[in-house]
Write a structure and sequence with these properties.
By secondary structure, this protein is an alpha/beta fold. It has a domain of about 170 residues: 2-enoyl-CoA Hydratase, Chain A, domain 1 (Alpha-Beta Complex). It is built from 11 helices and 9 strands. The strands form 2 sheets. A 6-stranded mixed sheet has the order 1-2-3-4-6-9, sandwiched between helices. Helix 1 links the parallel strand 2 and strand 3. It is globular.
């Protein structure tokens, strides 16, 4: 489709959507739009399941706050809402890091396959900002309200095994088997009656797209306020320098 987002048919009625901005696969509105456009295109095809994957060492490290305008979340979140708005089930193959907004991308999928070396973190508070990408809704749905609070407050990083133990990912396999396992899971979905799967999915997800839209409005507003703080500047600097941040609450 583009230089950064591609579609490949990998099995009967199963399509692989891959985004390619290595090594960290930082996203912006353009990249997320490309993924959403791929989903939209597959709505009109004989597609029963999508595997969402990325090139390179890491699945997605979220936004690159060190080099991009952090205040431009409006268009990004408009595109993020689109990821939740289509009817085809999605299985994410998560290698390396799914950090911050990258965790939000992983959680936009119905199911997640990871490796023992995968890393998951909602590290927003460690950067001095509010979480985003709809994690207000998706994280509690997957791990429960109390565990979501812990992950958001402390920004703890979990490997694949620990993530699997709390339900943050659904399967853990060796790295060499990651895509094959994600495709096999997608094939298992595709083997079911497609109209039934989409009907069940609609029932189980309910008003999820509307809830994501509402959540990202608040998330974006809170982020915009915190982007102007000294703590945010310190969080980004500390992350880049690989040291503990020294927050002052201002």
């Amino acid at each position: 489709m583009t230089d950064e987002v591609s579609i490949e048919w990998v099995a009967e009625r199963v399509a692989l959507v891959e985004f390619d901005r290595p090594p960290h696969n930082y996203f912006d509105a353009e990249l997320i739009r490309g993924v959403a456009d791929a989903y939209e295109r597959l709505e009109g095809e004989r597609c029963s399941a999508i595997v969402l994957a990325s090139a390179g060492k890491h699945f997605c490290a979220g936004a690159n706050f060190a080099s991009e305008n952090p205040a431009s979340s409006g268009e990004l979140y408009e595109q993020a809402v689109r990821l939740f708005s289509y009817t085809v089930p999605v299985v994410a193959a998560v290698q390396g890091a799914a950090i911050g907004g990258g965790l939000g991308v992983a959680l936009s999928a119905d199911l997640r396959v990871a490796t023992p070396d995968s890393r998951f973190a909602a590290n927003f508070a460690r950067l001095g900002i509010h979480h985003g990408f709809g994690l207000t809704v998706t994280l509690p749905l997957v791990v429960g309200h109390q565990r979501a609070i812990e992950l958001l407050y402390a920004g703890e990083r979990l490997d694949g095994e620990r993530a699997h133990a709390i339900g943050l990912c659904d399967r853990v396999v060796p790295a060499v088997q990651l895509r094959a396992e994600a495709i096999a899971l997608a094939q298992a979905i595709a083997a079911s009656a497609p109209l039934a799967v989409r009907s069940i999915r609609a029932t189980m997800r309910g008003d999820l797209p509307a809830r994501i839209r509402e959540a990202t409005v608040r998330e974006g507003a809170e982020q915009a306020k915190l982007f102007a703080t000294e703590d945010f500047a310190e969080g980004v600097a500390a992350s880049g320098e690989r040291r503990a941040p020294r927050f002052l609450g201002r």
